[in-house]
């Protein structure tokens, strides 16, 4: 008899999880959250998961309740004798804390990896980690998917000529270069200097963007300060248009206002994190649900997923 697959969701990722389940071809499993008066909560599976492959779907964006829900669900599934527990985390929170860049600071990404493993996860499925090496923080399999498989189709639909791929910082050069190779075009890079987190002190452009349709590529947009400053700089340097693609729309602080008032033609994102506002015309959402549903099917049927790791 084929092993059963069951899908469950954290509360804040319910819309995405329902979309994934729809593409997967079944409904989300039954789970209830009991809340206590002090704010504590307890998830409870309302159906048997014994011997099943369980997919627990939920991005671990702030607040930390989203991470804690995932951990409690993993623990509950483990104690209910699930055979395989896959934590499907489209956005992996704390990924920016992937190293000690200052004395006496934690490596948050490694801590979260330890917590997920200790809670009972036997496999991790995520998308566009802030740093590829985070996969090495786990002693269990990690399926690291790329949103490029979604974004490429969107870009092809725009039918733009004279495309130039761009990275808003030096760290994203590898990602932008992969797109540039795929589209057989040039790449430019923004060099930025920071004096403190989330604030860019100075930015310079490496490369030529005159009369080009520029596509900025990044893994996430938080305050939108870097990406909007880069777009303004490129328009000043003669770019024909500037668009941005970012997998994870963290969008904190004044990010929405910055995007709406910037030189960006549009910001293309996935639904790995639900938007706080839907009134910004420049933000275009493409769903990652079909990608996750397909890979979950392949994992469940023990088929190769290697073609999902490339553009």
UniProtKB/TrEMBL annotation:
One cellular component term from this protein's GO annotations in UniProt: cytoplasm
Catalyzed chemical reaction(s): D-ribose 5-phosphate + ATP = 5-phospho-alpha-D-ribose 1-diphosphate + AMP + H(+)
Residue ranges annotated for the Ribose-phosphate pyrophosphokinase N-terminal domain, each copy included: 7-120
Sorted UniProt keywords: ATP-binding, Cytoplasm, Kinase, Magnesium, Metal-binding, Nucleotide biosynthesis, Nucleotide-binding, Transferase
Record-level Gene Ontology MF annotations: ATP binding; kinase activity; magnesium ion binding; ribose phosphate diphosphokinase activity
Its EC number(s): 2.7.6.1
Swiss-Prot/TrEMBL GO biological process terms: 5-phosphoribose 1-diphosphate biosynthetic process; purine nucleotide biosynthetic process; ribonucleoside monophosphate biosynthetic process
CDD domains, per the entry: PRTases_typeI
Protein name stated in the entry: ribose-phosphate diphosphokinase
């Amino acid at each position: 008899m084929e092993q059963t697959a069951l899908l469950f969701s954290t509360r804040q990722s319910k819309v995405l999880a329902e979309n994934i389940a729809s593409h997967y071809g079944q409904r989300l499993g039954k789970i209830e959250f009991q809340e206590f008066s002090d704010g504590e909560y307890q998830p409870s599976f309302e159906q048997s998961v014994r011997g099943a492959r369980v997919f627990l779907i939920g991005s671990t964006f702030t607040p930390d309740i989203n991470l804690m829900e995932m951990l409690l669900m993993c623990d509950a599934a483990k104690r209910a004798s699930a055979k395989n527990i896959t934590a499907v985390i489209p956005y992996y929170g704390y990924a920016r804390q992937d190293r000690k860049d200052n004395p006496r600071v934690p490596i948050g990404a490694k801590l979260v990896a330890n917590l997920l493993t200790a809670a009972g996860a036997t496999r991790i499925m995520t998308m566009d980690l802030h740093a590829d090496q985070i996969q090495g923080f786990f002693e269990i399999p990690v399926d690291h998917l790329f949103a490029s498989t979604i974004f490429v189709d969107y870009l092809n639909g725009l039918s733009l000529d004279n495309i130039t791929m761009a990275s808003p910082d030096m760290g994203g050069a590898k990602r932008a270069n992969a797109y540039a190779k795929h589209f057989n075009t040039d790449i430019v890079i923004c060099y930025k200097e920071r004096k403190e987190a989330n604030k860019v002190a100075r930015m310079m452009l490496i490369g030529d963007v005159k009369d080009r349709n520029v596509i900025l590529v990044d893994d996430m947009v938080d305050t939108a300060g870097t990406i909007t400053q880069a777009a303004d700089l490129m328009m000043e340097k003669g770019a024909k248009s500037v668009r941005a693609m970012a997998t994870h729309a963290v969008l904190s602080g004044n990010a929405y206002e910055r995007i709406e008032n910037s030189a960006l033609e549009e910001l293309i994102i996935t639904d790995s994190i639900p938007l706080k506002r839907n009134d910004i015309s420049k933000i275009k959402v493409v769903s990652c649900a079909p990608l996750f549903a397909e890979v979950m099917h392949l994992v469940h049927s023990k088929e190769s997923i290697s073609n999902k790791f490339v553009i």
